[in-house]
Amino acid sequence: MDNITIRDIKVFVTAPRGINLVIVKVETSEPELSGYGCATFTWRHKAVVTAIEEYLRPMLKGRSVHNIEDIWQTMMGSSYWRNGPILNNAISGVDEALWDIKGKLAGMPLYSLLGGKAREGVTVYRHADGGCLEEVKECISQYIEEGYRHIRCHMGTYGGNFDGKRQQMVKPEGAPEGAYFHPKMYMDSVIRLFEQVRKDFGWELELMHDVHERLSLADTLAFAKELEPFKLFFLEDSLAPDQVGYYKYLREQTAVPFAMGELFTNPAEWKTIIQNQWIDFIRVHLSDVGGVTPAVKLAHFCDAYGVRTAWHGPNDLSPIGMCAQMHLDLNNHNFGIQEFSGFTQEEEAIFPGCPKIRDGYAYVDDTPGIGVGFDEKEAAKYPAVDMDHSWLFARLPDGTAVRP
Ligand code: MG
């Protein structure tokens, strides 16, 4: 088994719930041995496919599968300019597939390769949303019934809404189309939402909220202070990656726990806030930083500073990527919580071996490698789609474009 090499690398795009998922298959010189990884950057999936097919594939064919660290470093350096989401996702697809192969060769699940379990199940949280308070409450009740105890609460998706009324705002003449939101009304609606949720559901439920970098620095601080009485599990992405220095001031002035980082792509963005212990949870999207290899290093770096992991787990992540991060969740001592968006029946048919969820915990079985397969025929039933980008064009009431 010493001379196993990469025979070929294939890329698949499938959209079983109308969201493009990018899957990488690394085939080896052993006909029966291959691995799968997630390279999903759903908003630019064609660019990721091109990066893999036109650059990584020719570079890696014929290389040994064994030295993942060397391959990862080679992929990262191979374009000279690096650290962007397109190339990192491409790298992640290959990286995760190689870890999958290594697990299959060892006869061990990934968590075992990483050092074994620190816990038996992975605590997950769900995202509750709705157009009005009643809808959000219905959504929360449903999750509680299903056994979840950690819920992220929103109303009107990102940027807010209150009681079914779209926020009133006066735009300048000629203002362009966009996903308009009003920061002060958004803040107000969220405070009212949490008042109601605590009143109706009590204090045992763990609650989160995601700012999605929508607020100014001053508003973010005021918002965090206003949320203190509701005792959140964490407040997510309060700032944009280029403003993380302001966490110093947030930390000094509020007791709200902070989660940060789903847009991060490289260590320069997270080093300072972790070393200074300005955040409580690191929240990167595994494929957006380059896969399992850099995530293991990041998790251990965080452990030294008492920062816990809360990997990004939206529905624009394939079950292969979700399961890869659940292996880390099982292994990392400093695991905090895992975002989870459910698996549809269609996804479970395409990706056999999806983790099972019971009473708010995810369970990964002992299948060697990442443990999630890929049925190419099933996947082909759901070809790539043109996705609706409209929510990404966020604007303030005066028409100024802001981060979504
Ligand atoms: Mg988020």
Name the descriptors.
binds magnesium ion, single chain, 15 strands, alpha/beta, ten-stranded mixed β-sheet, 404 residues
Please give the oligomerization state of what you see: single chain
Strand-pairing-aware structural class: alpha/beta
Most strands sheet? 10 strands, mixed
Sequence stretches where pLDDT stays below 50 over 5 or more residues: none
Describe this structure in words.
This protein is of the alpha/beta class and 404 residues long. Helix content is 38%, strand content 15%. It has 14 helices and 15 strands. The strands form three sheets. Strands 4, 5, 7, 8, 9, 10, 11, 12, 13 and 14 form a ten-stranded mixed beta sheet that branches. The protein has a three-stranded antiparallel beta sheet with strand order 1-2-3. Strands 6-15 form a two-stranded parallel sheet. The longest helix has 22 residues, at 85-106. The chain starts with 5 loop residues before the first strand and ends in a 9-residue tail after the last strand. Magnesium ion binds at residues 210, 212, 236-237, 262.
